[in-house]
Design goal:
This protein has about 270 residues and is an alpha+beta fold. It has a single domain, classed as Endonuclease/exonuclease/phosphatase (Deoxyribonuclease I, Chain A), CATH 3.60.10. The chain is built from eight helices and 14 strands. Strands 3-4-2-1-14-13 form a six-stranded mixed β-sheet, with no helix packed on it. A hairpin with a 4-residue loop joins strand 6 and strand 7. The two termini are about 15 Å apart. The relative contact order is 0.18.
């Protein structure tokens, strides 16, 4: 249940795909890296607004109902067997993803699932807990459990690659300044526990197969020259089912790719030896 040939899967929170294209970053990135599957988060646009011509790729977009907000996309060289936008109806009816202000995260274009012959690719833009932690109850009690349950529901059929902006630094090694950020959005005990539940369920944090320690970050504040100084957070991940562990031949963070406050992350899946 692994790919028949090497396959590169990239994930990137572009923080507005139109802005990245306008900066003349997106096209050169795709040309240089040639991802077989490219997952985007925080696209902040409808495809009609973008008019992106990407030869050799099929495009799948899940845009938020609210204009200029959230959104995900998958671009793939190989046509999927099926594509699902958000949680499928049979699953969605079992979960309530509205927060205490009655904002429904299910309408925010946060998930796309592409089914291929031997695995699923799920891209996700996890809701931010917000500075005042107003969306932390949604994250902890609703979203994180629902997303894990969904990935396990898929996994009962075939292995899963789940990638995207999970909006959490898992351990103290995943951000440059853990002590002053403890309890703040992205590093609350609740969010970290939500991520740990994926690990406990057998999902593999692919970067940690190859790189240990701190300094491996995927998001940097715009303030205080944080990116140049590498004062960042690792909140973008590629997780895989345990069945794919030995097929993961590389996992990387592409910090040199600019254009967003996040950088791309990637894995290479290859047939077992």
């Amino acid at each position: 249940m692994i790919p028949s040939k090497p396959l590169s899967i990239y994930s990137w929170n572009v923080n507005g795909v139109r802005a990245v294209i306008k900066k003349d970053v997106f096209g050169p990135f795709v040309e240089a890296h040639q991802p077989d599957i490219l997952c985007l988060q925080e696209t902040k646009a409808d495809p009609a607004q973008v008019g992106l011509d990407l030869p050799g790729y099929q495009q799948y977009w899940n845009s938020a109902e609210k204009k200029g907000y959230s959104g995900t996309a998958i671009f793939t060289k190989q046509a999927p067997l099926a594509v699902t936008y958000g949680f499928p109806a049979a699953f969605a009816e079992k979960v309530d993803l509205r927060d205490d202000q009655d904002r429904d995260s299910a309408t925010e274009g946060r998930i796309i699932t592409a089914e291929f012959d031997t695995f699923f690719v799920v891209t996700v833009y996890t809701p931010n807990a917000k500075e005042d932690l107003s969306r932390l109850p949604l994250r902890f009690k609703q979203w994180d459990p629902a997303f894990l349950a969904y990935c396990q529901w898929l996994e009962a059929r075939k292995p899963v690659v789940a990638c995207g902006d999970l909006n959490v630094a898992h351990t103290e090694l995943d951000l440059a300044n853990p002590k002053p950020n403890r309890g703040k959005k992205g590093f609350t005990d609740e969010e970290r526990q939500g991520f740990q539940h994926f690990i406990d369920a057998g999902f593999i944090d692919t970067l940690r197969l190859f790189k240990q320690g701190n300094g491996h970050y995927t998001w940097w504040s715009h303030f205080a020259n944080a990116r140049t100084r590498n004062i960042g957070w690792r909140i973008d991940y590629v997780l895989v089912s345990a069945a794919l562990r030995h097929a993961v031949k590389a996992a990387d963070i592409h910090a040199a790719v600019i254009g967003s406050d996040h950088c791309p992350v990637s894995i290479l899946l290859a047939p077992a030896a």
